[in-house]
Structure formats: C-alpha cells, structure tokens
Amino acid sequence: MILLAEVECLIYDAQSLKQKRSVVKSIITRIQNDYNIAISEINYQDLWQRTQFGLVTISSDKVQSERVIHQALRLIDSFPEIERTTTNLEWV
C-alpha cells in the first residue's frame, strides 16, 4: 500500500527565503529521522511564507501506512512557526 500526502503550510515568521528554508529543512530532517517515510518540498519554493510538502510511505498494511503518515502530520503541527492549511491523502 502506497499512501501519498500533499500538505500545504503557511510560515508566519519567515521574512526571507533563508528563514523559510531553515524551517523547512528542520521539519524535513526531523521527519526523515523519526519516521521511515519520504518527504520533500514539492511546491512554492520561491515564496517565503508558503510551502507544500509531499510525504510518501509504503507498507504491506493500510493501517500502518495511515498511522505513520498521521504521526508525521502531528509532528508538522507541533512546530509553532508553521501552520498546516490543507492536507490531501491519496492511495496510489
């Protein structure tokens, strides 16, 4: 089972692309270290207060895939400098 999550976020405190990249990099690094999923910034690379992440997990169990993605989403929500606005989940 392959589960894809597309997550749009707003970064309120970023005043430059450099500050945005710092926030994005810390989130990506933390998720890659804590969970066995792939994550990347997939959109809005040139906007300094907006980003979109793509998260993908593969598992033989549908429940396990959902659990891992939801844990990663909760981790994104735990960062005070970012707000998750929309999340689309898709089974591939």
UniProtKB/TrEMBL annotation:
Gene3D superfamilies: TT1725-like. It comes from the Bacteria. It holds the Pfam family DUF503. Coiled coil: none annotated. This is DUF503 family protein. It comes from Aquibacillus koreensis. The lineage of its organism: Bacteria, Bacillati, Bacillota, Bacilli, Bacillales.
